[in-house]
Amino acid sequence: MKVPMRKCTGCSEMKPKRELIRVVRVPEKKDENGCVISGGEISLDLTGKKSGRGAYVCKSISCFEQARKARRFERSLGCKIPEEVYEQMSAELKGSDEV
Predict the structure, then answer these.
(1) CATH number for the domain including 14?
(2) Threshold 0.85, pTM exceeds
(3) What is the rounded CA–CA span in Å between residue 20 and residue 57?
């Protein structure tokens, strides 16, 4: 059986997809006039099932911080990421380590 491999945005190592956490940007929803209603939110996808543009990172906080510092998430997801979102994702990642 073939194991899907993904590259960590922090350490740039290829690892099995199941060992990584996905950071996802939800696609924007627009009304009939083309005005953005919702979407564009960035969050950790611990299930790996959310739809949207994704980037992968190791479950270690050091890889997350490395990717954050080099702005690799912003490059991968194609948008600017506010500081609050980074703080929230960092807290979520620290919380998922304990489980």
Answers:
(1) 3.30.1230.10
(2) no
(3) 5
